[in-house]
Specification:
alpha/beta
Amino acid sequence: MAQDELRRAGSGRRGGVRPWRAVVAGVLAILLLALLPGLVRLANFGERVEQGKLAESRLGPFYAASTAAPGGAPGDIVRSEPMVGAPPGAEAWRVIYRSSDEEGQPTVVSGTVVAPTTVPTSDRTVVAWGHPTTGTASRCAPSIGMAPFVLIEGLGRLLSAGYVVVATDYSGMGMPGPPSFLLGATEAANVLDIVRVAGQIPDAHASNDLILWGHSQGGHAALFAAQRAATYAPDLNLLGVAVAAPATDLAALLQADIVDVSGITIGAYALTAYASAYAGSLPPDPLSSILTSDGVSAAGRMSELCLLGQNNQLHAIARPLLGRFLAREPATTAPWDELLAQNKPHAGPLPVPLFVAQGESDTLVRPEVTAAFVLAQQAAGTAVTSHTYPRIGHGTVALVAIDDLLPWMSRLRS
């Protein structure tokens, strides 16, 4: 889901990759002091943004629909290219790779692989990052933006600790493809398959050892990847899963958040994605079964806008719909209720240790919902490490958690 502070960074022009340019000022204001302390690093970041701006204008052909021959395996690279503007001491690759969707059908997905430039004595553990909501339209993909590395929370410190970091855009973002927003099976496949990609890039020196790390929507993706890793990707050695303000109870999330413009935005993204992914299981004109007529019209328009860079446009559409977006509650309307339950991370024990970070001031993913998830996992027998942070909201909790996360990750490798 959204990073609250970043969502208020401003609006940009529609079309192409322009929306990302408008958000850079907001990203700088909120994240730079946490991510890149010191004037030397700030100067370096500015140089990398300029490099990214130049690269951004040339990306169209890379993200064009794939013409690769069918028949490849999930995780196979369709194409890749070096990326400019990587953090100091690191190199990065933009990738298009094979994955699968909710129905297990093949698709192609874009993403990013980042690795330290030093040659290690042994292959590196991979951290698979699941990004929070940036939108659902193709151009909202993080790898397209002029500052894609800033949106991988904790990247610099993970690289310094010797990890390879991979970041999927999720299906339907960057590359044309089926929707993925809060669709657990699709997200999980996309996250796990880009780990396989890293193993095919010799200079990354990536091992099969894997730690999952996700924020908000990315936490949802990481949890589903943890649940499915043993069967979907038995070639990978999952060590642990870490989440910050994860989307766990989707019905509760929609019920709590639909009362404000941010909640309507998330609802529009989710319900539009579900209407497409589950068209065969839903009635004709599925959105009309739960949304008002104005809500149906708004959801389609909102799903074409990016959360970062077109925030003002999203709010302008959502604000008049406060109190008049839903005609019925999805959580109690069949078959929507079943689809939400199907995409809720299960309460059964996870096969690996779990790290959970939650801001106590979060108004998007409510602390009580995350607390209930933690209690359920503990009761099921999962080895849970849980941290709550006073006066921390949704947007910055992943950054604040890094000080606790890195020692936890280190213990997994020992």
